[in-house]
Amino acid sequence: MGILIDQNSCNGCGFPESETPCNMACPGDLIFMQSNGKAEICCNADCWDCCACIKICPQQAIELQLPFEITGKEGSLKARAYREKTVWTARDANGNEEIFETPARNESSLKNLINPEEFSDVVDSYKGISKSFTDLGQGI
Amino acid sequence: MSFSTDKIKIERIKTDFLIIGAGAAGCFAAYEARKLNPDIDIVILEKAHIDRSGCLAAGINAINAYINAGQSPESFLEYVKKDSMDLIREDLVYSIAKEVNHAVDLLEEWGLPIPKDENGERYARGRGSIIVQGERIKPIIAQAVKSTKAKVLNRVVVTNLIKKGNKILGAYGFGVRDGKFYIVEAKATLVATGGAGGIYKPNNEGNARHKIWYSPFNTGAGYAIGIRAGAEMTTFEMRYVSMRIKDLMAPTGAVAQGVKAQQVNALGERYLEDRYGDLGGRQMPTSARLLATLQENAEGRGPCYLDTTHLTKEQAERLKAYYLHMTPGLTLYWSVKSTSPKNDPPEIVGTEPYIVGGHAQAGYWIDINRKATLENLYAAGDVAGGAPKKYVSGSGVEGMIAARDINSKLGSLNHEEINDHEIKEEMHRVFNHMNKESISILPDELELRMQKIMDDYAGGISSGYVLNEQKLSKARKYIKHLKEDSKYLYGNNLHELMKCHEVIDRLDVATVLIEHLSYRKETRWPIYQSRGDYPNRDDKNWLKFVNSVYDNKSGEVKIVERECKPVSLLATK
User: Fold this and answer.
1) How many CB atoms lie within 10 A of CB B260?
2) Are strands B151-153 and B42-45 parallel, antiparallel or unpaired?
3) Each residue of B268-318: pLDDT tens digit?
4) Which residues form the domain of B392?
5) ipTM metric
6) Are B216 and B278 members of one domain?
7) Which of A24, A32, A49 to mutate to test the interface with B (most CBs of B within 10 A)?
8) Total domain count for chain A?
9) Across the interface, which of B52, B321, B493 has its CB nearest the CB of A136?
10) How would residue B568 be classed by pLDDT, with cut points 50, 70 and 90?
């Protein structure tokens, strides 16, 4: 396992009209949009556990799960990126939760240089194309 | 053949300065180039998205090339030289050492949180390392690049450099989201990608196969494009094998240096001091600490741990949270087991070998300005050779050094006409793998075969990292067969097409690597390069660089020896 995308919580973030944050963030190009408009991971074994998609998901629909072969137990990690901090919730097999906060960024000297609208790293303004499962089958 | 490239849309771009890879090296290069020249046109090609790509996607919790109080660029150079068994490019390492603190100052200016003590000093984690709270480091660096108005093309996989005679004219690539073929013509090109993981069989298998230390998406493209273009490469034989926390393969620095945890064996003995004083005890080189750990396991005193049982409950909790900045899976690992480092100290093991220039020194042979051996081509960061232990800050420095040289020469550089026939050929080479042949091999299948060959015959984990000529000749033979078979690689969509090229790139890296490993007939860097048939270090014959130039037509690797020139900096100072 790598990530689990809760199909009930995922609202597709306006796909196909706009780029979806999880699809944008994945460094491995692993997240795709299904024909029902919801996100899914194409190959969990390829996931690096970097949590980029988890932190950026506005619905908090994604969680990290470790492979059973490594832990022998279930559990999950969720996270939410705010501008100054990231808040994490780790859950063990019995449902006990631990909450952590990590500082994320300080004020930047660059703030006067660039358009403030470009300044959100929670959901950045990538104008690319989200890839859908239909694309997957078509090839070129 | 039914396949035609006519349907592929072509995107043609002209720029002054092409940067391949938007990691630390590439981003600092863009920033520096813009700072020096408001008019320079910059294009960055990035395989993922600049906000969360490569090694830094998850974040980092320390910066490991830094000059702390009491240290100096000279002492940094001495340390790197000693840790790398005296064979380094001193000129390159010293030029990095002089500017790593400047790179860190920039990161802080851009918004990276760096905690400080009551005197305003950054917290030293080790002699050349500081603590940072770097979960957001990649978006922070990306924003600095956005402020430069460089044109960032995300999701473009670079497939080859454009070459004319001895000159590099830019690069080819394809869009993994838009399916376009990209031709970027540039006056100067900087290769700044990550190194190569995934060449050897990893520690974990199946669903856990990507629980590896290095980014599994760094697949050696930056090396491969240079190899195929005939750029001279250096010291691939100094592989990097790291001691990591078992299962999640998380870095150990936060534990070993951060909370001063000692290495202990199953009997609770501090084996480095007790049994390996001849390797230098606790002062031994990085690779020797792993060598001693493997030896303890071989002699039946494993598993070995980083002893964190002395921590207070609060310290252990802090350590657990600290990993959220870099390897969040490890925090979850402790949480899932309802435990903490205090009562479940991390077990330590060795990773599979990686080919990287940021920790070890595999990469392009470059001059002091980071110019490679081909005209108008530069390399910085993980793909630049000769300067180990540069890490994030040193990679940034190399990017800035390259950008300065490129900017100063820009007036004398020009675009040149590209041969249409070569464009057609490259398009065919790139997209042909979407054409299903009667025989087809999936990229995952070929990857597993490559990793098995390298593990079995080129010093992987299963052979205790030990090499010999007989095994290497088998590796050479089987990798050559596999390269021939790679023409049958089939990807039925753009993501799979990318994976086809990732395997092709790694096969080219493996081909060169095997020749380097075979040529060096001594053991210079135990574990990284351990020869069973030449077990001793031999300074008389081998205190020199092993370099290579690949001939893409014949598939031959030509080895060239280069002198190791100590720049007696300390003497002249």
Assistant:
1) 12
2) parallel
3) 999 998 899 888 766 788 888 999 999 999 999 999 999 999 999 989 988
4) 10-59+137-240+353-421
5) 0.94
6) no
7) A49
8) 1
9) B493
10) low
